[in-house]
Amino acid sequence: QVFLAESGGGLVQAGGSLRLSCAASGSILTYAMAWFRQAPGNEREFVAVIARSGSKTNYADSVKGRFIISRDNAKRTVSLRMNDLTPEDTGVYYCAAKPWPIINWVPGDTDGGYDYWGQGTQVSVDL
Question: Could you tell me which residues are beta bridge partners of residue 126?
């Protein structure tokens, strides 16, 4: 079992940046790692995913070119660098881990199969 803890959320003005971090209680070597978010009144949506090796990533169209996901397997951490934030990026951001057999590929952009989730960190973007 892996416990995930997100940090780094906060209030930022539009156009600003934030860096989210996710710390795992155990090894993440066998997991694809992802970020999801949920805005008030909306369903949870996919943001980004990174392969076990870190060599492959995938992003939601809405964040492509602005967000960067990365991981450090030795430190058991996953990060999400968010640039040029807009109010539409407001929501609770969740880190998730999915057992994944392919080291250099990523799963699809659904939230199925993610066994472990963090408690979330709030990101609020003001105009």
Answer: 13
